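Lab notebook page, bench 4
Experiment: in silico fold of construct C2
Operator: M.H.
Input chain length: 430 residues
Purpose: comparison with the prior construct
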Amino acid sequence: MLNSYNLEQLDRLVRAELGSLVDCYKKLHANPELSGYEEQTSAFLARELRACGYQVTEGVGKYLKNPWRGHGVLGLLVNGPGPVVLVRADLDALPIEEQTGLPYASRVRAQREGEEVPVMHACGHDLHVTSLIGSARVLARLKESWRGTLVLVGQPGEEGGGGAQAMLNDGAYRLVPRPDAALALHATAQLPAGQAACAAGNFMASLTEVEVTLYGVGAHGSAPERAKDPVVMAAQLVLALQTIVSRELSPLEPAVVTVGSIHGGSASNIIPDQVRLLLSIRAYDDTVRDGIVASIERMAAGIALAAGVPAEQAPRVVLRVAHPANYNDPELTGRVTEALRLVLGTDQVHQAPPVMASEDFGYWGLNREIPTCMFWLGAADPELFRKSQESGVPLPSLHSPFYTPLPEPTLYTGVRATVASVLNLVNQTR
């Protein structure tokens, strides 16, 4: 168990690194890279881990098809007999144009699916990577006080939903020892810097992306009787999908079905021959998720049949992305929460409600064979957070072009929280 000497030593070491870590953060923030293109970010992390004495493996995922181009990083520090603990950080950024006005704001633009897009670290992954670097430095300096094996993961492609699976498919758990526990943090604007939140059980929902293509018969806009209009079918399907959660699931079973994109047609006077819809499904239970997919297939087929579409032109339903829910193992979460309270203070650690947002960290648990725990790391400016609470006007959230975390106190808390959690899981010495 952590003691007062450990905590004082930890605090001194983190404070000594803080200035350098803030510089690292600003560099990463100003130079974001999209999912599958994290070449410079992964190389930067690999250099930092090697400088701390870690054995580093780069290019994990390189045998897979695009877009995962082998930018996964594994850092290994074997420090005698004891538990194996994995700590993961995600590397990628989002296609968002930053509007924070910060002096180190991103001005990066990159190619994405043949189109030039702006790029921004709007989900805190720059904080995650920097916190991992700080934790790597501190844990290496504390080697005399613990025994075990530390596995640090720099994971590409979290925003694309396939980076964790890509690394595992490429043998991540053959390249490093299979962990006894896996940890991660996630920055949030819903808490001020200096605070954290955690909860056992359901933490984040699974995500399944579905592509539905409705086929019809095209015609001139003036002659709808000669067409089988997929635009009308798409409108009917969007409305029908709303009944899945409201009428096919128990009110006690959380789930979300969202139609985020509809594409079809090229002009106002042309009835097109197909319309494509992109959907997302979020749930905590795989059985619920599978039932929703089956309902989408049934509804699409039924609407096409009712419109008189020939059987050979039946709708096409394809699962594009599917990754598991994040389930915090109760025993592991209890030990992490204990460490967070010790290092941050009991009043600074909160009970986190489950959310329907999604993350692919759950893959590292191999369908709950390995205990996992993720916790929220407060990143908001405390004064702005206080004013927001008083006024009722929310601060810019994750995935907002205005998202502005406060680096220094956030990194100070993130490194201390991560190191304390690891130390509470490995064998400690005196």
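Observations: The chain has a mean pLDDT of 95. Residues 28 and 335 are 31 Å apart (CA to CA).
Next step: discuss at group meeting.
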